[in-house]
Amino acid sequence: MTIRKFVLAATAMGLLSGPALAQDNEYADALNEIANGQLRTIAENPALVAAIKAQNAETAGYDAAKIEELDQQWRAEVDAGSKPLIDEVMGTEASQMLMAEQESAEGLFSEMFATDAMGLNVAQSTITSDYWQGDEEKFTETYSVGPDAIYLGEIEQDESTQTYQSQVSITIVDPDSGEPIGSITAGVDLSML
C-alpha cells in the first residue's frame, strides 16, 4: 500500500483526524479570511501549480520506504553543511515566489510551504524541519478532505520570536480539473491580525 493510499484510508476511518481546532481557535474568523483570500491567491499561482503537478508525476509511485528515505535525508541536511535536497527545493521558482509572498506580507506570514499529493515538500519560504508532511493534520485535513478544505492549527508560541502563531492550511487544486493536487500551509503571526 502506498503512503498516499494509507493516509487517505486512515483519514476516512478517522484514524488521522484531529480535534476540530478551527472552532476552538479564537482567531478562526480572521484566519479563515486569510485562507480564502491571500492564501488561496498564492495557491493558484501558476508557478506553484506547475511545480506541484511536475512533482506529482515524479512521486506518484513512491512507496513508504522511499518517502522515509527522503524525509531522513532532509532531517539530516537541516543542520548539515551540505544540503543538496534542501537546496534543490529552496532554489525553485515556486520557492522563490513563496519567499517573495512572505516578504511582501510584512510579517503576517512566518513561513509558507506547499506539498505534493504525497505530502512531500514542493516549495517553501523557509526551511522546514522535515520533508514529509503527509502524516500531519495540515495535510490530512486539507488534501485528503477536498478542494475547499481549510485547516487551522493550534495557537502556539514561537520561542525564538516570542510571538503567538497559528498555521493555516488549504488544499491546492488543479485549475484545469478542479481536483486536489497538494496543500499549502502558512504560519500566521497572530499579533498582526
Mean pLDDT: 89
- Say how many strands there are: 6
Strand count, sense and barrel status of the largest sheet are: 6 strands, antiparallel
Q: How far is it from the N-terminal to the C-terminal residue, by CA? A: 43 Å
Q: CATH topology, which one?
A: Beta-Lactamase
Helix content: 40-55%
Put simply, the count of helices is 8
What is the domain total for the residues?
1
Radius of gyration: 16 Å
Q: If classified by CATH, what would the architecture be? A: 2-Layer Sandwich
Uncertain regions: pLDDT < 50 for 5+ in a row? Answer: 1-23
Strand-residue proportion: 15-25%
Highest-level CATH class: Alpha Beta
CATH superfamily: PAS domain
**In one word, what is the shape?**
globular
The helix/strand class is alpha+beta
Listing every helix as H and every strand as E from the N terminus to the C terminus, the arrangement reads HHHHHHHEEHEEEE
